[in-house]
Amino acid sequence: MRYSRYFVHTLYEVPKEAETPSHILLLRGCFIYPAAAGVYSLLPLGHRVAEKIKNILRAELNAIDGIEVTLPVLNPAELWKATKRYYHIGQELWRIRDRRDREFVLAMTHEEIITDIAKKFLRSYRDLPVMLYQIQTKIRDEARPRAGLLRVREFFMKDGYSFHPDFEDLDAYYPRIYNAYLRIFARCGVTAVPIEADPGIMGGTGSHEFMLESPSGEDRFVVCSQCDYRANMEKATGLKPRRQDPPGTPPPMEKVPTPGIKTIAQLMDFFKISEEHFLKTVAYDADGELVLAVVRGDFNISPTKLANHLKAVRLDLAPEEALAEKRLHGGFLSPVGLEPGTVRVVVDSSVDDGTLYVAGGNQVDVHLKNVLCGRDFHAPEKVDIAEVRDGDTCTACGRGKLTIRKGIELGHTFKLGTKYTAPDAMDVTYLDADGENRPVIMGCYGIGVERLMASAVEQWHDEAGIIWPLTIAPFQIVITTLGKKTDVDQAAEELYRELTSRWEVLYDDRDESPGVKLKDADLLGIPIRVVVSQRGLKQGRLEVKVRRSGEVLFCSREELPALLEKIQADLMPEMDGLPFMPE
Amino acid sequence: MRYSRYFVHTLYEVPKEAETPSHILLLRGCFIYPAAAGVYSLLPLGHRVAEKIKNILRAELNAIDGIEVTLPVLNPAELWKATKRYYHIGQELWRIRDRRDREFVLAMTHEEIITDIAKKFLRSYRDLPVMLYQIQTKIRDEARPRAGLLRVREFFMKDGYSFHPDFEDLDAYYPRIYNAYLRIFARCGVTAVPIEADPGIMGGTGSHEFMLESPSGEDRFVVCSQCDYRANMEKATGLKPRRQDPPGTPPPMEKVPTPGIKTIAQLMDFFKISEEHFLKTVAYDADGELVLAVVRGDFNISPTKLANHLKAVRLDLAPEEALAEKRLHGGFLSPVGLEPGTVRVVVDSSVDDGTLYVAGGNQVDVHLKNVLCGRDFHAPEKVDIAEVRDGDTCTACGRGKLTIRKGIELGHTFKLGTKYTAPDAMDVTYLDADGENRPVIMGCYGIGVERLMASAVEQWHDEAGIIWPLTIAPFQIVITTLGKKTDVDQAAEELYRELTSRWEVLYDDRDESPGVKLKDADLLGIPIRVVVSQRGLKQGRLEVKVRRSGEVLFCSREELPALLEKIQADLMPEMDGLPFMPE
Fold first, then answer.
1. Do A309 and A289 form a contact (C-beta atoms < 8 A)?
2. DSSP labels for A103-166?
3. What CA–CA distance (Å, rounded) separates A555 from A560?
4. Distance (Å, whole) CA A236 – CA B437
5. Which intervals of the chain are annotated as region Disordered (chains A, B) (predicted)?
């Protein structure tokens, strides 16, 4: 491609709101252009990168028996009502009406549509298993689009859906998609950390996220210092260190007036004890029901864990009125002294039965001292609802320390089970070999194309610009001429013609200064730069620069093809050593 | 691909509303599945065909310097307000609001978005010309989705937009896209007739449609029996045969009471004259203004021609109240006797000054006889607003007869000029070589992928099913085994392995009867069928059937590769003889 006839217009200024490296560099390099908040056009360079990612996705998914389809953006709302997601998902599900007032949603994922297809066509055990996938436009009315392509309202998603005769078959297939995901990210040059994940609104029985550790990410996940344990914050568990009270008969509970004392700091000061001696009680509204959640004072409640335990679709902090109705008082909440059966109480497993706590008094300006779980209040629902903390001990190995990291979610795999195929959802069954009707078992698997593109930039950039992994670079080679001499142009033209038969070449034939050309080549991040200059011609040599290493090599015209092949081999992603799941 | 592990579930029943061959066969062959009225999923076979069409589009457009991009479905409404299309386009433009109540449209085409990009990046004459295109999801809230993929509400469109420094440059580029379109349709195996078209809501200064003549089409176009003239009904003109009155001084106009006489048939009977002796006057509401349109009685008014002449965005029949306001009477309308300046009158060129007509009297139960245009009423706006008629003489050659045909619009090319770049639209200018600001000149070019797929089926099918053109067939070859013997399966397996290195092969390895397999192969329309049977094996020969011709050939295993190449060569579309425009 000749630069002068291509569509690249690099920018030196970008909008102030662009803060993450990928946002800034993709705008500056003319890869993308915003149409609205969180809505982008992929300009020619960006389109090329996206196509390369799509082709890697196709190759890896076809290799594990994936079959490509295209499903529509317009989804009839009835299907989403059948699975209840119409009611459970918030405003990010864009609901619209057609000219005849029929309701549609703009699909943010395609479980409903694909399950409807499965219901129509998958009738017999001979039709299973099958994995259908697509790479298609998704629309989500995100509350806060951010960071360029990292969180957007419209994007290409690779979403795949597998259908199985039973859980064993899904379990057998799952490692294949998991490993394909590892290969996909590796082939795109991005270091993905697979972590245990919470299935969230997708529902189901098990899932993994694939994260790129990055300061630009908005997800958090934990990593064990000793073992392979990796999990997202919503799912991660750490060991909760036991507290040890002095031996002897525990003293009885007593009321302590605490006028004007409100914050935890004031309480610690007043009682002269540290955080872990308190019970922290928070009131939630879970699908309309008032729930008190109790953790030890040195922990925080994880709303996701609590919601999962409650199977709640919506979980918010309880409003004042809901507390007043039960004669409870914010700031003095406690699981102690509640009338049995009036309020549901969920207690975190950090609260043990053998140690004394200070708790709220369930009346204004009163706290309770020497509260003993099991004696002064009961905890029929004691489960893990606490957020893991940086430095907690790993539950998996019992030795390592957990560290909390920021990351970008690159992909997500779910074992859905019968969430969408169950009789109370879309009721999809097949006839097994014995003629029995059985529910179809599902898995689903997603990767966002644009986010993967931006993540590659987050991982691979420097001061000067992007450093595209060779596999997804818009062009592999840029030919840059220095000086305007006829012989330079002629040599470059010949080189361009020759190299295009083997490589994707951007030939910078512009009438620009060497400085501008070299700067643009660095900004665009083309992996290999071949410089044709008058001095080089005289010396019979070409200058070859590897963008990633910065290495500069010299060679003759004859040596060039072999050198380029060698550089390519060096730049190809390493597949060995990926943390594959046994298949 | 092994049929048993693929996703093909042919149907013997289809919805009653499926009437056109492509709708029926694409459903029966498991190429598509409806999600809602006019909204389809492309199942694996349909997806494959669409991808082949997309690749042909890409190859031909890249060959004429097209550069691919991806533009978003979500378009901010402001851009569409800037070009006024927000106001001018009816309900087919889907208007939606986001969670912050910002207004968007779901893009049905992308002039606004691409022009916004042009405005940002195309600053200098050195940036021009450039042609950007995409193959991307379009959404239109069609009033009447019909005929499967022929008219839908969501589809892939290839839309391209070219930007030029002046009209001469656009005129020079236009034949290249026109010829690329001819090659695209030919490569897809579809016979496209290029016709002169009306630019319609796209605006602009010249355009062509590419039509497949088909009884399933809903467009009409005219073809000259003698010359190359082809045009759509909205644009077509025929010679309007003159009427000849007897020589002598024309008699004066006179009022004739016509009580109870309303229809044209009654009038002809009453006055004992034929249609062409009447003036037919119809009242329209053109963007709120009352307009009387007058044609000779043997013609009909073309609302599109009238709207174009008036530059009207909306043109409807005038309501009773609008007539009453001007003291006009439906059924007795006439251009005669109107108070000057009160009502705009447009007269068709079929009405000549030298002949006498019967016209309405502009009062109830009265007609006028011996009305002479120029004497009894004036026609300052005499233009062509009549629909062409089957059998009219061609205006282009003056000899041939025009025939009206039904067709499917496959593609459309427009010279847009400055419709979108003008100062009162999006105001896009560039600096020319002399440093002068000049408006950018545009063209735009569209092809619907799914409609092209369906059109191929409309053109290529028989009683037994689809007959895919080889170039867009989901698979080129189907291997069918007859009988369940081990040696048959083994031979087929080997053949499958061998052929897949060169061809796209669907291997029907199902445990089904020969009848079912052969019937499915015909329905799916795979161009070449290779049959492996026990008898064939014994005789050392394979049966090869060409779906299109029905020809059955026999060959040995060794002869097969050469035979397949020969069949392919025979099936490749002919490019010579296409009606190319001189470049």
1. no
2. EEEE-SS-HHHHHHHHHHH--BGGG-SEEEEEEEEEE---SS-BTGGGB-SEEEEEEEEEEESS
3. 6
4. 61
5. 236-258
Domains, chain B, ranges and CATH?
Answer: 11-74+106-220+403-458 (3.30.930.10), 254-383 (3.90.960.10), 475-571 (3.40.50.800)
Owner of token pair 């610009």: A465
Look-up of token digits 């009406």? A97
> Residue B28: which H helix or E strand, with range?
helix B21-28
Pairs from B91-97 (Cβ < 8 Å, separation ≥ 24) = B91/A99, B91/B141, B91/B143, B92/B140, B92/B141, B92/B142, B92/B143, B93/B140, B93/B141, B94/A96, B94/A98, B94/B139, B94/B140, B94/B141, B96/A94, B96/A96
Instruction: Give the phi and the psi of residue A254 in degrees, each rounded to 5.
Output: -140, 150
Residue B311 forms contact with A (CB below 8 Å): no
Q: Answer whether B42 touches A (CB < 8 Å).
A: yes
Taking CA atoms, A139 is separated from A68, A105, A106, in Å, by 20, 9, 6
Q: Which two tokens stand for residue A131?
A: 């994995």
Report whether B301 contacts B293 (CB < 8 A). Answer: yes
In B79-108, the residues whose Cβ lies within 8 Å of chain A are 79, 91, 94, 96, 98-99, 102, 104
Which of A43, A73, A76 faces B73 most closely, judged by CB atoms? A73
Rounded Cα distance between B208 and B413, Å, is 5
- The answer to whether A56 and A187 have CB atoms below 8 angstroms apart is yes
Taken in order B261, B266, B272, B278, the sign of the CA dihedral is positive
Decide: helix, strand or coil at residue B337.
Answer: coil
CA B64, CA B60: separation in Å to the nearest integer?
A: 7
Residue with tokens 């397999």: B517
Q: Report the interhelical angle of A449-459 vs A21-28 (nearest 10°).
A: 100
Region for B272 from its dihedrals, namely left if φ exceeds 0, alpha if ψ lies in -120 to 50, beta otherwise? left
Could you tell me the mean pLDDT of each successive run of 10 residues in chain B, 583 residues long? 95 84 96 96 98 98 98 97 92 95 96 97 96 97 91 97 96 95 97 81 70 92 90 87 83 89 85 90 92 93 90 88 86 86 90 88 90 87 92 92 94 93 94 95 97 97 96 97 85 95 95 93 97 91 95 95 96 91 90
Task: Sheet containing A94-97: give its strands across.
Answer: A74-76, A103-106, A94-97
Report the length, in residues, of chain A: 583
A259 Cβ neighbours under 8 A, 6+ residues apart: A365
Contact B43, B30 (CB under 8 A): yes
What number of other Cβ atoms are within 10 A of residue B514's Cβ?
A: 13
Neighbours of B372 (CB within 10 A): 18
Q: Which residue is closest to A153 within chain B, CA to CA?
A: B74
DSSP code of B4?
G
User: Residue B462 CA to chain centroid, in angstroms?
Assistant: 24
B10 touches chain A (CB under 8 A): no
Q: Residue B365 in contact with residue B332, Cβ under 8 Å?
A: yes
The answer, yes or no, to whether residue A201 has pLDDT greater than 60, is no
Q: Min CA distance, B134 vs chain A (Å)?
A: 9
- In angstroms, the CA A578 to CA A439 distance is 35
- Packing angle, helices B449-459 and B21-28, rounded to 10: 100
Angle, alpha carbons A457-A404-A144 (nearest 5°) = 55
Asked if B138 and B108 count as a contact pair (C-beta separation under 8 A), the reply is: yes
Angstrom distance (rounded) from CA A53 to CA A153: 20
Say what the ipTM of the complex is: 0.91
- Are the C-beta atoms of residues B419 and B187 closer than 8 Å to each other? no
Rounded CA gap, B386 and B348, in Å?
Answer: 6
